[in-house]
Amino acid sequence: MKTLILLVALLCSAYAYRYNNKGEKLCNFCKAFIGGIETAMDKGEASLEKAGDKLCDELTAGNVLLDPICRGLVEAELPNIISWIEKNESADTICKQVHLC
């Protein structure tokens, strides 16, 4: 239930941010996040969740809008993101699937 609430909050925040003429920034952020996860996978990182958290720290720099979106990606979507990367889906396609592009 917590995950569902977090996912709904994530999507609401993302849509609000996206439709406030920030869509390109949000999409670019998502693509950078996906690229970072791909890099962590290529390096054989032991914990992709920790790698995702570190990416959030680096990419959001404490931005009050982006940070919760990023943390939501790690908590609610990381298994799907990993699966899509393993299926060689592009960052653009993945970000569209999580409604950030």
UniProtKB/TrEMBL annotation:
<protein>
    <submittedName>
        <fullName>Saposin B-type domain-containing protein</fullName>
    </submittedName>
</protein>
<dbReference type="InterPro" id="IPR008138">
    <property type="entry name" value="SapB_2"/>
</dbReference>
<dbReference type="Pfam" id="PF03489">
    <property type="entry name" value="SapB_2"/>
</dbReference>
<feature type="signal peptide">
    <location>
        <begin position="1"/>
        <end position="16"/>
    </location>
</feature>
<dbReference type="InterPro" id="IPR008139">
    <property type="entry name" value="SaposinB_dom"/>
</dbReference>
<dbReference type="InterPro" id="IPR011001">
    <property type="entry name" value="Saposin-like"/>
</dbReference>
<feature type="domain" description="Saposin B-type">
    <location>
        <begin position="23"/>
        <end position="101"/>
    </location>
</feature>
<keyword id="KW-0732">Signal</keyword>
<keyword id="KW-1015">Disulfide bond</keyword>
